[in-house]
Specification:
- The chain is of the alpha/beta class.
- Helix content is 36%, strand content 17%.
- It has three domains: 246 residues, Rossmann fold (3-Layer(aba) Sandwich); 136 residues, Rossmann fold, CATH 3.40.50.920; 278 residues, Rossmann fold, CATH 3.40.50.
- It has 25 helices and 28 strands.
- The strands form six sheets. The chain has an eight-stranded mixed beta sheet with strand order 20-19-21-22-26-25-27-28, sandwiched between helices. Strands 4-3-5-6-8-7-13 form a seven-stranded mixed beta sheet, sandwiched between helices.
- α2 packs across α3, α2 runs parallel beside α7 and α7 crosses α9.
Length: 769
């Protein structure tokens, strides 16, 4: 329950305020809904995903008018935001880590053409290897993109900085997009007491009218503009100079805005947060969440008679060089903690810029110690703060810095604790049973498979060990293992980021018994195609003869959790090149590895954490993507759908897939798998649910072999077709669709399922469709 803090006398300020108890992500969303942005383009990635989720919840309850646009990936979300900003409205986004790197191509485009917006960068480790916890390795990539960057030490700062950011971005002397940076899983998820504007009108009065008078945009028919023209020298350098001037203007404008904000709210964010620096002899420079912990350490050292102080910036672009030099002019030694490394530069970005600032302003006396700390979300405690100060104290005592640059918090490798193989490699003989025979009929052009009874394949070893961390009832591994029953011999598997990857590869262990590769959603197909072509070329050159391979590898890419959204482009590229490989999609109808957000594979009307159900919206608003038909349109040799509820059908298709992938080229397969946690169903019901999905004709079983479509199971012929509503009532995520108020979504879904089913039947009946 919110508290009226003005009436309670808890803060000095000119506006009425309320107190809430929320996380940084919630406060970013709360500020955005008060600003009431026009558009947010977004794509889920931990730990920033919640920002869009909270906004979607508020949207269905009618709390704001923001148009939330789910993109096909972060690159797409950045494009949505850029396009929206050129059209003159207020634009918002949030991302993290590799998601930010994926959109980074767009960042200089937006700042270079001077269109404002606000993006929350919820800082997280950049892979590889994959780590989803908080450090500043993504933030440091943002330093050269031309966006002013505001820093947030706690959820209160996230709220306040978001409101100040849009005012800064739109200022006539700045006109640049602005990043608001907070620490992932520290600030983003930890709840704190936060003071907020009580009334949206007071927020709007502070940030001002939008768009600013005279600001150009693409929707003014009387004043058409050209956005992002091709420029030659010297126009380009002049454009960059003007952008540089705007960036440095941002420092003065920010300082003015924060003073105005202080008068309104009683909360101040000076360019530098200086704590007990007035007579400090030793200091520590840290950013964001760690900078609050270090203040306790300063007090403890002061109690011992040590003149300690701390520095934390509230803005790092433009970099406050002059202010930092002034703050350190009487300091004998400072330890600079960077939560990311600039590999090979003898320190992280902050220490390098601080050294440059000291040199620029004539300070040759303050000793600077660089330490890289907190990578991968490693916690920072008061004890660590004492150690950071000790580096500076030791330098003062010795009169020099013994170790100018090092990591802090890492541990040396112990040879006795080196990872040991837990699972022995599977023997080829156990994988190649000889029971499955796939041969091509030259007359029909189709591959025929001789299948033994499934019980004959039960002795075939599982390719994934059971010691993974999947949720109870997860259909991924039962579906994958059933598919692998039809694959003979050795495989090389690549897994996209997703549930199947995360739960099987917790270092130092792995559930994979065969060679395994990981790459990110957007580039798995391209990566595996490189592996495939290297295999065939090295084999041609005779470089693999010493391995005594008994057969060619079968190369399989496993994708899911929306991987065929963000990874669609490279997958189509691999298909058009027709590499000898299999792409197998497990479709759980959402981005389940980041918390069940809507995917393009989510059907219309289905509930997810970014397609909520409320008075103004009944689940996802648009129809699901038919990836099997999209891939069939690339004219690869073989496309199929499968389900664990029809095991003989799936194993047979796996055998055909292997034959095509070893002889002719690309194969694409799609299996529907249950996700009880996010489908809101019982753990034991998964096989029945995906079975009814087939019988309702939502997920038909068919194959496209050299362009010819064949239904491999027709529930109408078996008198087993069930109404779509029978399938929907089996899952908590869809039961709302059976209520009268959501009849429109149900009707649209039923019509689309029937349309696609009739199209498939027509293709089955004619080889020319």
């Amino acid at each position: 329950m919110a508290i009226d803090i003005k009436k309670e006398g808890l803060v000095d300020g000119k506006v009425e305020q309320r107190m809430v108890y929320e996380s940084g992500n919630e406060m970013a969303a709360y500020a955005a809904h008060q600003i009431n942005y026009h558009v947010m383009g977004y794509f889920p990635i931990s730990p920033s995903t919640e920002v869009a989720q909270f906004l979607d919840l508020m949207k269905v309850n009618g709390q704001h008018d923001i148009v939330l646009i789910p993109a096909d990936g972060e690159h797409g979300s950045a494009g949505i935001c850029y396009g929206a900003s050129t059209a003159g409205g207020r634009v918002f986004n949030a991302t993290s880590a590799n998601g930010y790197l994926y959109m980074i191509e767009q960042m200089p485009v937006q700042s270079g053409t001077r269109f404002p917006m606000v993006m929350n960068l919820v800082c997280r480790s950049v892979s590889g290897p994959l780590d989803i916890h908080g450090d500043h390795s993504d933030l440091y990539f943002a330093l050269n993109t031309g966006w002013p960057i505001l820093m947030c030490r706690d959820p209160q700062a996230v709220y306040d900085m978001n409101i100040m950011a849009i005012k800064l971005a739109e200022d006539k002397d700045v006109r640049l997009p602005v990043i608001v940076a907070s620490d992932g899983y520290f600030t983003s998820h930890q709840k704190r007491r936060v003071e907020t504007f009580a009334h949206r009108k007071d927020v709007h009065d502070f940030i001002g009218e939008q768009p600013p008078v005279g600001y150009p945009h693409t929707l003014d028919r009387d004043n058409p503009i050209t956005v992002g023209p091709y420029m030659n020298e010297p126009d380009y350098i002049n454009n960059c100079y003007q952008q540089s001037v705007a960036m440095y203007n941002a420092e003065e404008v920010y300082d003015r805005i924060r003073k105005e904000y202080f008068e309104l709210t009683g909360r101040d964010y000076p360019i530098l947060d200086l704590y007990r620096m007035e007579d400090a002899e030793v200091a520590v420079f840290l950013m964001n969440s760690s900078s609050e912990i270090i203040k306790d350490v300063v007090d403890q050292l002061r109690a011992k008679g040590i003149k300690a102080g701390s520095i934390a910036p509230n803005i790092i672009r433009p970099f406050p060089a002059k202010q930092i030099a002034e703050a350190l002019k009487n300091v004998k030694a400072v330890t600079v903690g960077d939560r990311a490394d600039s590999y090979g530069a003898h320190g992280g970005n902050m220490v390098l810029e601080i050294k440059a600032a000291l040199f620029t302003y004539g300070n040759k006396d303050t000793m600077v110690i660089s330490r890289i700390y907190g990578l991968g979300g490693k916690d920072f405690y008061a004890e660590d703060g004492h150690n950071m100060f000790q580096f500076a104290i030791d330098a003062v005592k010795a009169g020099k810095v013994e170790v100018p640059f090092d990591y802090y918090g890492h541990t040396p490798g112990d040879p006795t604790k080196a990872p040991k193989r837990v699972l022995n490699p599977m023997k080829y003989e156990s994988l190649n049973t000889g029971l499955i025979k796939a041969t091509k009929d030259e007359g029909t052009g189709k591959v025929n498979v001789k299948m033994p009874p499934l019980r004959a394949l039960t002795g075939k070893p599982k390719r994934l060990a059971p010691g993974h961390g999947a949720c109870p009832g997860c259909g991924i591994f039962s579906g994958l293992e059933l598919f692998f029953k039809g694959i003979e011999g050795d495989i090389v598997a690549l897994f996209h980021t997703g549930c199947a990857m995360v739960v099987t590869t917790g270092y130092p262990y792995s559930a994979h018994k065969a060679t395994y590769i990981h790459n990110l959603f957007q580039n798995g197909a391209a990566t595996l195609s490189g592996v495939v072509e290297m295999f065939w070329e090295r084999k041609r050159r005779g470089e693999l003869d010493h391995l005594n391979l008994k057969d060619d590898f079968t190369f399989v890419m496993i994708t899911g959790d929306g991987g065929m959204d963000i990874g669609m482009g490279p997958s189509i590229g691999a298909a058009l090149r027709n590499h000898k490989m299999i792409i197998l999609e497990y479709d759980n109808e959402g981005y389940m590895n980041t918390g069940a957000q809507q995917s393009y594979s989510t059907p219309i009307g289905h509930r997810t954490s970014t397609s909520n159900v409320g008075k103004s919206k009944g689940g996802k608003r648009f129809q699901h993507k038919d990836t099997a038909q999209i891939m069939a349109a690339t004219h690869i040799p073989y496309v199929f759908t499968g389900s664990e509820s029809f095991p003989q059908d799936l194993v047979k298709k796996a055998a055909k897939a292997q034959w095509y992938a070893q002889h002719e080229g690309m194969v694409y397969g799609k299996i529907l798998i249950a996700c009880p946690l996010n489908w809101l169903s019982e753990d034991q019901d998964g096989s029945n649910i995906v079975g009814e999905a087939v019988n309702s004709c939502f997920f038909p079983l068919y194959e496209v072999e050299n362009g010819i479509t064949t239904l491999t199971y027709n529930p109408e012929d078996k008198n087993k077709k069930v109404p779509l509503s029978d399938w929907l009532k089996m899952m908590g995520k869809t039961r709302h669709m059976l209520k009268p108020e959501y009849s429109e979504e149900l009707h649209a879904f039923e019509q689309e399922v029937e349309r696609r089913w009739n199209m498939l039947k027509a293709k089955h009946e004619s080889p020319y469709l």
